[in-house]
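Lecture 7 notes: from sequence to structure.
We start with the chain below.
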Amino acid sequence: MKKLNLFVMSFSQNIISSIIMLIILSFALISMQDVIGQYRYITYSRYIIENQYLQNSDYFMINPEIMMVPDPNEQLKQSNSIKEKISKFDGVEGVAVAQHSTASYRSTTVNTEIYNDSMQKAFSKELSEGVWFDKADKSDIPNVVIGGAVFNDIPIGSDIEIAMLDKNGNKVQQKVHVIGKIGYPWYAVSYATISNDVSTKDFLIQINTIIFDDDKQTSEILSKYDSFKSLSFSYFVIYNKECTDEQKEAVRDYYNSVGTYATYDQILENTNDYIRDNLMKKIVTPIFLLIIATLTLISIATLNTYKKLKDHSIYYLCGCSRKKSFAYLFAEISIVAILATIINIIYVSVIMSQLSAGTMSYSGSIIDYKNIIYSMIYCIVTIAITVILPFIVYKKNTPLEVYRRNHND
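Predicted structure tokens for the same chain:
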């Protein structure tokens, strides 16, 4: 009972303030998690785009008005026509674009894509495990790269069956061989953005995906299924090393006649601007709340230390050592920060479990157990600061001195 009293006595007169501080601290840590998640996402997207193959490229975006044709076939025709004209310009090495379709795996709809050689080179950093098609052994069944929560438990080298639609709309099981994986956070390339200030954050989407190679063998196997279509209205145009400035200007003049474009350097500059202007603004509120909560915790620790020194001195004289007394005071001071950290860990764990189960997506952010490290570091530093004060007090004042000073009347 004596130990229990020592442990809870600092909250006996500060319950309301401790609860308020716990709410503020928990909210601040969760808000900080969201900002950290967004920062990790945009730096991850910048890492994916920072590729030597893309350094000599432009990101072309078709004018949406050109594609506002009711007939999807006409849209596809116009899109392919523009892409073919761009690819035929002198100095253009290739167009990094994919053809899209859908399939299903474990009753879940998945996105299927055919990557051409330029796409594989441009986004080679996507893979977390395995290899791309140029380094894989040929197989009787199509080699694929997979990514997404639905494939989380599939190891490299496995053969899996996916359901694809044939020309008549019937589902047909197709066996494929897994040679590579896009690991968590399962972001795959997306060309969905048409913007004046496009940045690397606009190129990725969290989705279940299967990627095929654009080779003759795979094309023959996939020819019996519903057509893969290239409906991307934007894509990277890769210039060869010998491309002159005059040749680039000719291609860019054509861009301006059918849409707009952003250079590789402009994309990275826009990314850095976004980090500086947007994320720095978002981080102000959680930092402000953390400062308030930290200062409040330190203040309460200071007040409690001086308020309870007399009680601790009595317990010391009754047989509790200074070491144990300090340990109990340490526990009393640190419990709020520990509880806030536990709430934060639960928050991250819930998100992670939902992401792993495929019941939710968290596009534009990366939330995983690494984020918990930041909360734990804060918790440790905050507790260390708050216990310095009682440590100093205990070091300068023996329990016996405190008792005599408080009972000299």
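Points to note: The two ends are 30 Å apart (CA to CA). Residues 52-277 form one domain.
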